[in-house]
Structures
1.
Amino acid sequence: MFDTKEKEKPFEILCEYYNKIKAHKQIKNIIDTSINRKIPYKVAIGIYIMETFYRPIYIRIVEYLLLVIGIFLNVIFKIPLRNITIGKLQIGLGTILSYYGNVKIGMHDRYIYSLSINQIMFIFKAISWKYQLEILYWWYKIHGLNETPGKIGYLYNGEIIYGIMLQRLVNIIDYNNCESKVSLSNGNYRLGM
């Protein structure tokens, strides 16, 4: 049998992380952009929290270096490039290329076999925060409308646990007053207890 407190640790850590970063410029940018696009901001913030917590900047720098090497090998030696995820929102290369209109490469293809110069430029452009948000909102309009946050998380990441964590994060995110004090005894997550 699992210890309830052990199961809740990752969730509590994410709540604490949110409390530390909720005043960051990116969080405010997510809220403003979401409101302008009439998309629930809590889902976007939840994705941002999980992706930046589990992929801090030093790991993303290594990802970018591997991406540059992979693109070089793909262009020069025609070695297939893995469809990896990049950026603060960990958006897949296939999703990026689909956003820019490439129909030959699917969002969930494992490899990208041949890249054009335009596609390489799109990939590097998508590393920026502005385009990461644009692609996330485009993806949400395709997959997320009328879905629960848990289902959106599953579709976004492909893992059930990601969907569960996103659902729970969305339930406690309140930009004006979020505290990580949660009631574990009955499974209700309330703010400011």
Note: The longest strand covers residues 81-82.
2.
Amino acid sequence: MAIARKAAPFALVLTFLFVAVSSTAGAVSLPLKAEKDNPGGSGTAALENGKISIRAEGLRPNGVYTVW
């Protein structure tokens, strides 16, 4: 049950990106913001021509991160 609860926001973001790209011909770009655990992190998630591109900086090496 906990895994499904954690995966639901990720699936929601991917669904949003898919719908946004399907309805428009242009690129979609979403800013990624840091939480209190890692305040120096930032980046963008972009969807263009059916491809997802995620750029991030200020993250710890070998860390595990989620997208909400």
Note: The chain has one helix and three strands.
3.
Amino acid sequence: MLERRTIVLADGSVRSYFALPPDYQDFPTPIRPLDIPDEFGFSPGTLSACLGLLLAAAAS
């Protein structure tokens, strides 16, 4: 994600530095781990909600 850039100083020495690319704001928001579905197509938040509904139904 970072670009390596080089600058030549007035005394002739060369320095390298790392910088964000010019289009860094165009990167999409990374997927949070809770939003990634498992092998069955459910995310952990979905499974927790389903389990809560099942437990509530069993208790009544």
Note: The two ends are 53 Å apart (CA to CA).
